Amino acid sequence: MLVVTAPAPLAARPDSKGAAPFVRIFEARYRAARTLQATFLQEYRDNNTVVRTEAGTAYFRRPGKMRWEYESPERDIFLVDGKNAWFYVPSDHTVIRVPAKESTDWRTPLALLAGEMKVSRVCSRVDLADKEKPEKESNVVLQCRVRGASNPPATAADDSAAPKGAQSDVVLFEIVRDTGELVHLVVRQSGGVQVEFHFAKWQFNPAVEEVLFHFQVPIGVAIVNGELPAGEAGVK
Q1: Which tens digits make up the pLDDT trace of 37-57?
Q2: Which residues on adjacent β-strands are paired with residue 126?
Q3: What pairs with residue 87 in β-bridges?
Q4: Closest Cα partner for 217 from 79, 104, 101, 82?
Q5: How many whole angstroms separate alpha carbon 189 and alpha carbon 212?
Q6: Whether the predicted pLDDT of 236 surpasses 80
Q7: What percent of the chain has pLDDT over 70?
Q8: What contacts 127, CB < 8 A, 6 or more positions away?
Q9: From start to end of 117-210, where are the E strands?
């Protein structure tokens, strides 16, 4: 008896040429989850020199919400509640507030994790970054050209509150070849400036309360309206 086996879907064939199969694997990995949680290590580099290293836990929730809890070397919070982006440094007794659509923060490319999980909403073009060395040989690095103000992405209802694209030259997504799990993100700008995010311990639909994505201004803390200073935005 002749048995005919259907070929595997293109997204499941990591040996296919081009970036498209890996983009689909990446999108499929995170699309089903309403809430995501991961630990992160963030490095700010200037001309290949590490200027600052920070670590903490990041949360993402649809539609358009993010929370970054920095635990080391000091406790800070960066939060996008779907309408505003907040940056709170307890030691400064101030919180910076800016409309989410006007934010050009370094974490902007990761807003796709809190949206429809369509890479095309953040990237105008995605290619395989063959010249970039991944953290592990089994991983794949995707090079994303971020959509700029002159070429904005189409906006869906659940992405409308996410920050607009950062004016970066290139963003690199490193994912696990077979699963699409995000392990490393690099936001690289001209002049030798870049920020790297290393992710681990991903959780899908963890038991996280909605209140976590709403910023409550502590008593005695002043609200400053406006964008983060350029240097601070890169570091934090």
Answers
A1: 999 999 999 988 899 999 999
A2: 144
A3: 78, 96
A4: 79
A5: 31
A6: no
A7: 78
A8: 19, 142, 143
A9: 123-128, 139-146, 170-176, 182-189, 193-204
pLDDT tens digits for range 111-161: 788 888 999 888 889 999 989 999 999 999 999 988 763 343 333 333 433
Distance CA 55, CA 113 (A): 19
What are the structure tokens assigned to 114, written together? 């809190």
Q: What are phi and psi of 210, to 5 degrees?
A: -60, -30
Q: What is the CATH number of domain 18-235?
A: 2.50.20.10
By residue count, the chain amounts to: 236
Please, are residues 109 and 171 in contact by the beta-carbon 8 Å criterion? yes
pLDDT at 23 over 50: yes
Per DSSP, which regions of 7-119 are E strands? 35-46, 49-61, 65-72, 76-80, 84-89, 94-99
By DSSP bridging, strand 222-225 and strand 123-128 are: unpaired
